[in-house]
Amino acid sequence: MKKWTKYLIGAVSAAVLSFGLVSLYYRGVAVKGSAATAFAETKTAAVSIPQDSLKVVESLQNAFRSISSEVLPAVVEVDVTEKKTVTPSPFENMPFFFFGNPNDRNRQESTPREYEQKGLGSGVIVRRSGKTIYVLTNNHVAGKATDISVKLNDGRQFSGKLVGADERMDVALVSFESSDNTIPVAVLGDSDKVQAGDICLAMGAPLGYSQSVTQGIISATGRSGSGIGNVSDFIQTDAAINQGNSGGPLVNIYGEVIGLNTWIASSSGGSQGLGFSIPINNLKHAIDAFINEGKISYGWLGVSLIEISDEYKESLGVSNKTGAFAAQVFIDSPAYKAGLQSGDYITSLDGHEIKSVDQLVREVGNLRAGKNAEFGLIRGGKSVSVKVKIEERKADVAANDGKTWPGFLAVPLTDKLREQLKIDDKNVKGVVVSNIYDKTPAASLRLQEGDIITAVNGKRITNLQEFYSAMDLTKTKSISFDVYTNGGTITTSTYKIK
Asked: Which of 149, 212, 219, 246 is catalytic?
C-alpha cells in the first residue's frame, strides 16, 4: 500500500531550502546539459497523418500557444527569505562533551540560533494601481518572508513588499513598484462555472523552472483537506503541479485565472496527477481586503462544526439530510446570544442549502460583521429558524475552547461501543462522552471519556436527539448529568451557565 502525503508546493522543505536548493537546481542543469541534449538531437522520421485530423490537433496546439503567450507575462517567480530560530539539543554532538567543561558546552549548544531559509514559489499579477503592481500568491510562500523578490518573465527582478497575508485561507498579496505600463495584469475568471472535464493549464515555477506550463483537465471541484488553514474548498486537477508551483495560476481555455495552485497529494513528493487549487472566486474579496485593510476580516458565528457519520445522523434524527452539525456553542458568542444550540443541525443559510461543514465555514466567514443572517436547522427532529447577528471573528476568542458548551462531544452508544466499554447490561442507555476540552463545563464536572450519560437534569435519555433536546439552554441554565461509570451510576454536581 502506498502512503499518500499532502505537500505544500510553494517551496521544498526547510532542510532542502536551507542547504540543498541550489545544488538541486545545479543537478537539474547538469542533466539537462548532457543526456537531455543528446536526446533532443535524436530525430524520427515524419509519419503520415490525415490532414483533417492534423488540423484539429494544430488548432488545439495553437490555442494552448495563444493562452500561454497571453498569460505567462503575468506569471511571476516569488523568491523569499525567512528568518528562523532553532534551539539545538544540549546533547547534540555528545562525544565532544568529554573534552573541556561539559557545562560550558551545554550552555553553548542550548543557545537559540538564527538562520535564513530561502525558498521560492509562484505568483500571478492581479492588479495595478499607478506604479504599484499587486501579485497574488500563497501565504505559505510569502506570508512569513522577511525579504521578497519578484521575478518577471523577461528576467527583470523587483523588490517585493508583503501587503497582507492570511493563514486561514492560505493567501497572500505582494506588491512591487514599476513605471512600466506594459507589465500585464491577468484576467480573473469565474470559478463557479468550472466543471469536471474542463481543460486547464497550470503555470508557475516548479523547482525553479520559471514560466512553465502544464496541461490537464479539471478532475473535481469542491475538494476538501490540505492540512493548512481551515477554509477548505479546492479545484482538483491532473495538470502536473510540483513544488514551486504554489501561488501560480490555474487557467481555463479562455486565458482566465480560475484558481491558485496550492498543494498536491503524493506518495513521492512529486506530481502524480493530484493537484489542488483555491478557486479564484474565493480570493477576489481578499485582494480588496488586503489593499484596503491589510487583512481579511471574517464573520463569526460562534459554533464548533464537525462532519458526522450516517450512524450519528440516525441517532440525532437527521438521516438523509445534508448540513453541518454544531457540536459546541461558544458562550456569549453571536450564536449563543441568538439561541442557537449545541446539537443543532444547520441545513441552510439565508435560504440556500448547506451541504457541508466546509461550505458553512466559508460562507459564514464571508459575512460582514453586523449582518443579520438566518439559519435553517433541525432541532429535536423539528425544523427551526434562527436569526443571528454576525460579529467579526477574533482569533483569540475563536480559539478559546474553554468557553465552549458543553465542552465535549456526545456520541451514540452503539453495539460496538458497548463491546469496547464492556457494558453487558442492555438496560444501560444513553450517550457516550468523548473529546473533552480543558477548562470547559465538562471538565469542571469531572466527566471522563467513556462515561455514559443516562439522564440530563433527571430526565432519562436514550439517544443524541433526546440528549440535545434536554440540553436546551433557552429553557434552563443549570445542567446536571446522571453518569454510568465503572459499573455504577452517579449524579454530577450542577453546572450553572452565567
From this structure: 246
Q: Provide the 10 A C-beta neighbour count for residue 298.
A: 25
Distance of alpha carbon 447 from alpha carbon 452, whole angstroms: 9
Do 299-403 and 406-496 show the same overall fold? yes
The active-site residue out of 68, 79, 140, 232 is 140
Using DSSP, state whether 382 is helix, strand or coil.
strand
For domain 299-403, is the CATH number 3.40.50.11540?
no
Identify the band that residue 143 occupies on the pLDDT scale cut at 50, 70 and 90: very high
| Residue 450 and residue 470 in contact, taking contact as beta carbons nearer than 8 Å | no
Residue with grid cell 493562452, as numbered in its chain? 67
Pick the CATH number of 1-23+59-78+118-296 from 3.30.70.120, 2.40.10.120, 3.90.220.20, 1.20.1250.20: 2.40.10.120
79, 149, 166, 170: the active-site residue: 170
CA 281/CA 253 separation, integer angstroms: 17
Return the number of other C-beta atoms located less than 10 Å from residue 207's C-beta: 18
- Does this model's pTM top 0.90? My answer is no
- Domain 406-496 matching CATH 2.60.40.1120: the answer reads no
Q: What DSSP state is assigned to residue 92? A: T
Residue with cell 440540553: 471
Active site residue 332: no
The answer to whether 345 touches 360, Cβ cutoff 8 Å, is no
Active site residue 246: yes
Whether residue 245 is annotated as binding a ligand: the answer is yes
Decide if pLDDT at 8 tops 50: yes
Annotated ligand binding at 285? The verdict is: no
Asked whether residue 170 is marked as a ligand-binding residue, the answer is yes
- Count other Cβ atoms within 10 Å, centred on residue 269: 14
DSSP 245: -
Give yes or no for residue 352 having a pLDDT over 50.
Answer: yes
Q: Is 140 designated active site?
A: yes
Is 139 annotated for ligand binding?
no
Cα–Cα distance, 32 to 241 (Å, whole number): 20
Residue 437 DSSP symbol: P
Provide the terminal-to-terminal Cα distance of the chain, rounded to the nearest Å: 53
